[in-house]
Write a structure and sequence with these properties.
Length: 300
Amino acid sequence: MARFPGLSRGPSVARAARRNRRRRTRLLMVAALVALVVTTLHAPAPAKALSNGSGTIETKGFDTCQDPTEGQMQAFWNGTPYWWLGTYIGGSEMGCSQPNLNATWLNDVRNQGWNFEFIWVGPQSPCTSYRYTFSSNPSTAYTQGQNEASSAWTTLTNLGITNGALHTAIVYDLESSPSGCQSATNSFIQGWINELHISPAQVAGVYGSVCGSSLQSYASLNPPPDFIWGAYYDGNSSTSDLWAGSCGVPSGDWVYHQRLKQYNNTHYETWNGVTLSVDDDCANGPVDPSGNGAVDNSCL
């Protein structure tokens, strides 16, 4: 049964190597900041910081390729069923530019009442036709998963997430996982999880089709993803409904507020005069930064 391991660790030697890699990244960031201060007479005001952490939410949200403007987000807030936004923050396979995404946008939208589910779209399975894929060699794929997690962490902190993004939930978007590459895919996802669990640890999630991305296979990892986000377009918003007949996620996996569901595929919705192309989602799991929102029993 998949549980919420929080700060689970791998072997001490590997953990030290991964921690050193993060430290080197942080030292480079500090050096760049010092250089900026020395060479700039009037330093710009620091970016607003969004609180780190996550909290359980049991209600509806939506995701869309390009983050809407603040005005569009306000329109989709007033009198709608939505409390959180699936927010793409980076990765080599991210399909849209994000001209609105920065620390100020995050804080202003947060002040409207929104929570976020941060999404990273990096390389995909080597058994797919995506432009960027990870290695079919499990050992290499593991390291690549670590590297993606490190890049995602750097992006979170550059967006102003406080305290090194401690306990902040972030999801890897894995669109497909054909069976011929499952061993490499499992290793890649294990690298993603283990790297994110290094202090200051994040909450490691995986998104994908409940069948096409083989989400159930990640329940056997050690540790498994802290939570999953399954795409299953049956129109049923219940996060308990991820079985899809026989190929999806069994009812006994990820049951401790560890599930999100994308239950309606891309379509147009109009609220308060604003129309966006969205996917409909429900959560019974972690979102950032706090998980505030009224309970929607249809998501359970």
